[in-house]
Known about the structure:
The complex is a heterodimer.
Chain A: H1 2-12, H2 24-27, H3 30-35, H4 61-87, H5 94-120, H6 145-171, H7 178-210, H8 217-230
Chain B: H1 2-20, H2 42-69, H3 77-103, H4 128-154, H5 166-214
Amino acid sequence: MSRYIVYLYLVQNKKCSWWQTLDNVHLSIPNESTICKSTVNVVTPLHIGIDNLVFPDHASLNTLFNFILLKKIKHEHLYNLVSSHFGNFEKNRGGFEKLYKKLSDNTWEKAIDLVKFIGKRGGHMNFRARKDEKNEKQIDFEMYELGSMARALDMQKGLAEEAHFLHAEVTRRKEHDPEVASYLENNFVHEHSEIIRKLSGHTNDLKQLIANQPDPSLSLYLFDEYLQKSL
Amino acid sequence: MFKLSLLCVAAVLFVSSQEAHGKMTCKLPQVQIPDDWITMVNPCTKKMREQVQEELTAAMTYFAMGAHFSKDTVNRPGFAKIFFDSASEERDHAIKIIGYLLMRGGLTKDISQLIRDPQPLSETWADGLSALKDALKLEAHVTRKIRDIATTCEEPGRDGQDFNDYHLVDWLTGDFLTEQYEGQRDLAGKISNLGKMLEAHGALGEFLFDKKLLTGASV
């Protein structure tokens, strides 16, 4: 439900990025979380929600970079756990396992790349620069296939949101920093869109495959096989 | 107030959209799978799970070392390179252990407790030598932990849970311990070489050593 609030808020404030239009995926997902009685809150708000997107004014660029890096590391661990979850013999979804393993590997590589960039620009890494994330809920890992993808989509959007904010910060006239902007574009923004688009596509496909089906086991099996082969 | 009214609109939307959509099932039927093939016993499984966190803590510590030596005021790209490589290696170890647990029928529950926000043990180092020394201590610690697992898994020693896990111990000693001992020897050698130069040629020694590390030369 919170997704609606975020969505409406976005519309009201004309802050809609292009990928917010991909939200039609989410708008119909509450069904899954209610009907399947999944404890996973599929429609969690963006963690760096629109409301708390505004960092304190005194936060330096370095701190912002620290935040985004720590978030990446956190995501890396989460993807790893979700991948393991789908790899157990009861779930046995090799395709989903692979999907999240790849996301984890990719996030790890990007994190190393990012910390090198921080060093390149004379910054430093403070691993305790934790942002107060009281809105963050404990994730329940007993998740289903569709819910997990919606969740990953949310995580990626949260990350994109932060990268966009950072990009806006460095393109304002006073603090204009073309190099940081270019780095963000080349290493984050394009890739984020790609991942978000892919996950959104998968989520939509899977949603249609299992909608109105009392027993989606075959659909899930085939979709998982597709993931395994296509990745 | 504005928010409250939004909430109401959202609630109405939510309800109406629910009605508009058909039923969706995600939960599949429970399958009765024989479980007598799952032979790992509790104390052993617990140690293996803990090792995942150990390896990731090591990974994060190496990551922090890489970050430290990437700073312009430190400027030791060679050191940064070997530490980032080690960070990825430790992460791979954690993933390998998870893979083993999955293979033996584990990790069907409590997965969220497997990785608990591992933190680097330190964030700054006085110089290259002290980082190498810390790295060696860290490796020795990890090695002790792996030996610990082997001890526990050979003799879990609980009533009705005596199960000598030959395969796990063999896998650990063959794959992991070999790598640990080789890695430790390599670090000790580096510390020795760098340490010898440091007394008379401190700054120059570390500078040259760093460039050697950068080109991947064995030093």
